């Protein structure tokens, strides 16, 4: 029988198996029949407003804060942060898994050659080439590759999420340094005022015009302020070290900051609608569902027969020249394997794959609900912080007017030192509250940008 005849018979058998196998495709369970795309559309409809990708402007997290100093810090972090580098390496592993899955769709070629010498028979030379190929009758190999492609897409999106989160963390940490420096400046001004008060009261006490109680109260307030200043400076150094960790910088060199808060351009005025579809974690959760669905298909197809084709050429000669010029023997083999009994292992694999898909969908729902909550929380916080900031500014203006009057009253002996210190402390406390509210508002805008899916190079 020649090669053409053998190949024709194998094709005929393959055709018969394909036609026959189609009649024995296992029935899908109710869980496997779930149309997750339709269910996801229904979940999305529960969000008040949903906007597809691309509807927002080109604003991203790297342009929210206009600062060359911060830009340099972000660039360093994107290059050296160990968590980001680990995420990138993990993505490369999944890409290699995809390459391995794709290789199963291609013929496998192996070649061998050996030479041997026996005392009675002399030398012999043997070489062979074998080509093996598994026919993808039911699309199982294609579904395996598709699942790997979805895995790569998921990991690429998770890598994007790590990038976005890193940029947000670096921005928050840098703003925290500015905030803490402002707190230090306020406390230094408080301390300077208390030192002047203490000197003034000490002079009055020595002149017999003040009381011991006034002097003790001034000394107590002065010591308390020094303790607070020491703690603030320690917090500032700790925050610097925390930022250095994000930058992946072990040198712990000094980090530059600016004197005034930079503008964070994003506000609720820029957000008339939700843009949750931009979020990489939500997109990654969807890719995980698609990968699980493809693996469910593979689990069902494992119940069907497999057909492997093997072609080989071999030549045995007593001299290298004869081996090269001789006519090799060939063989063509088709091997059919089908599961008959495996103790329920394949059926259990099907059930597990279906459950994995269902779990992936629930993960998607949780991510969707969390995303909507984060946007709502950030928008609500923006409104609340703006109102609180206005109230504190009004209170601070009135308190500064009161402080001016109490300083005059104290010089005239109309109020005690305790009254003056209370007003002074309240004015500095209000300045600190105002500083905190500005900082919280800027931080919240970064959180809002991250919540709606603004990231790096979107």
| Total separate domains | 2
- Biggest β-sheet: count, sense, barrel? 4 strands, antiparallel
User: What portion of residues is helical?
Assistant: 55-70%
Task: Identify the strand order in the major beta sheet.
Answer: 1-2-3-4
Q: Could you name the CATH topology of the largest domain?
A: Outer membrane efflux proteins (OEP)
Any idea what the CATH architecture of the largest domain is? Up-down Bundle
Written as H for each helix and E for each strand, in order along the chain, the element string is HHHHHEEHHHEHEHH
- Which CATH first-tier class of the largest domain would you pick? Mainly Alpha
* Averaged pLDDT: 81
Terminus-to-terminus distance: 62 Å
CATH superfamily of the largest domain: Outer membrane efflux proteins (OEP)
Stretches where pLDDT is under 50 for at least 5 consecutive residues are 19-23, 51-58
Shape descriptor = elongated
Question: Helix count?
Answer: 11
Which secondary-structure class do the elements indicate? Answer: alpha+beta
């Amino acid at each position: 029988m020649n090669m053409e005849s053998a190949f024709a018979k194998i094709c005929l058998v393959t055709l018969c198996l394909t036609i026959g196998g189609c009649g024995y495709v296992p029935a899908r369970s109710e869980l496997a029949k779930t149309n997750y795309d339709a269910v996801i559309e229904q979940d999305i409809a529960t969000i008040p407003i949903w906007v597809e990708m691309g509807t927002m402007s080109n604003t991203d997290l790297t342009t929210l804060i206009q600062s060359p100093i911060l830009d340099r810090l972000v660039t360093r972090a994107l290059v050296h942060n160990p968590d980001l580098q680990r995420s990138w390496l993990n993505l490369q592993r999944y890409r290699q898994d995809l390459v391995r899955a794709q290789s199963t769709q291609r013929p496998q070629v192996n070649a061998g050659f050996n030479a041997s010498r026996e005392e009675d028979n002399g030398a012999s030379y043997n070489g062979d080439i074998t080509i093996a190929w598994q026919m993808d009758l039911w699309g199982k190999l294609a579904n395996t590759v598709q699942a790997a492609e979805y895995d790569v897409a998921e990991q690429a999106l998770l890598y994007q999420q790590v990038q976005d989160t890193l940029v947000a963390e670096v921005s928050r940490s840098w703003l925290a340094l500015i905030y803490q420096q402002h707190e230090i400046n306020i406390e230094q001004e408080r301390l300077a005022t208390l030192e002047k008060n203490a000197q003034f009261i000490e002079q009055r006490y020595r002149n017999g015009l003040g009381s011991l109680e006034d002097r003790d109260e001034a000394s107590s307030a002065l010591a308390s302020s020094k303790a607070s200043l020491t703690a603030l400076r320690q917090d500032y150094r700790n925050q610097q070290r925390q930022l250095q960790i994000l930058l992946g910088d072990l040198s712990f060199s000094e980090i530059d900051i600016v004197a005034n808060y930079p503008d964070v351009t994003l506000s609720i005025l820029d957000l008339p609608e939700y843009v949750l579809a931009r979020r990489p974690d939500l997109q990654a959760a969807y890719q995980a569902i698609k990968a699980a669905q493809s693996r469910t298909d593979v689990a069902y197809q494992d119940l069907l027969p497999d057909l492997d084709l093997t072609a080989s050429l071999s030549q045995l000669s007593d001299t290298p020249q004869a081996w090269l010029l001789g006519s090799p023997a060939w063989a063509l083999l088709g091997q059919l394997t089908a599961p008959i009994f495996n103790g329920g292992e394949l059926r259990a694999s099907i059930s597990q794959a279906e459950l994995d898909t269902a779990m992936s969908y629930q993960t998607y729902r949780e991510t969707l609900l969390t995303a909507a909550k984060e946007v709502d929380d950030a928008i609500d916080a923006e409104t609340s912080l703006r109102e609180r900031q206005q109230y504190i500014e009004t209170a601070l203006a009135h308190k500064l007017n009161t402080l001016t009057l109490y300083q005059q009253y104290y010089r005239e002996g109309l109020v005690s030192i305790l009254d003056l210190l209370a007003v002074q402390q309240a004015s500095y406390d209000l300045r600190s509250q105002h500083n905190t509210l500005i900082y919280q508002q800027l931080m919240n805008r970064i959180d809002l940008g991250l919540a709606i899916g603004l990231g790096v190079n979107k």
